[in-house]
Amino acid sequence: MEIDLKKIAFDLDFHPSSPIVATGLITGYVRLYHYDPESQSQPKKLIRVKAHRKSCRAARFIDDGRVILTASTDRSILATDVETGKAITRVDDAHESAVNRLINLTETTVSSGDDEGVIKVWDTRSRTCCNSFDAHEEFISDMEFISDSKQLLGTRYNFNLFLLVL
After folding, report:
1. DSSP character at residue 18
2. Which spans of this chain does UniProt mark as WD repeats (predicted)?
3. What domains can be seen in the chain, in order of their start residue?
4. Which of 18, 40, 123, 146 has the fewest CB atoms within 10 Å, i.e. the most exposed one?
5. Is the pLDDT of residue 4 over 90?
6. What does the pLDDT average to over 70-98?
7. Phi first, then psi: what are they for 107, rounded to 5°?
8. How far is residue 65's CA from residue 47's CA, in Å, rounded to a whole number?
9. Is residue 122 pLDDT above 90, yes or no?
10. Beta strand pairing call for 44-50 and 140-146
11. How many C-beta neighbours within 10 Å does residue 32 have?
């Protein structure tokens, strides 16, 4: 099975309980596709949303897959309803520079990382930043959360790792 996006995809995420994949594209669009894991049939496009003015670098399902959260070089973070494709909330200027990564931490918190090495923790209920770390001087290339110990592991472009205890 193959999906021809016709544009560069910066990120993707699989829905936690349905055969749906979300892609964040260089054009700022987010596309969701339904696929049949048992067949070779072509995936069906469910949603196509112009989520950001600039490239969409990160995409993550939250709220048990009811919402797709995306982040962009335009420094915004957008929450979109998966069923309707309608915007739920947008945080413009979520960071001072381009947002590269998003990761789920708990049922009510997510983390974002940007081009200047800043990591923020967001409360999805209040839609506010509840913590910020100036972790590096360069962009955050990836993050992983270890829930048992409340540790957030991050990487930057030069392969350095850092560990934050939340």
Report:
1. S
2. 49-90
3. 1-94 (2.40.128.630), 100-166 (2.40.10.480)
4. 40
5. no
6. 96
7. -65, -20
8. 14
9. yes
10. unpaired
11. 24
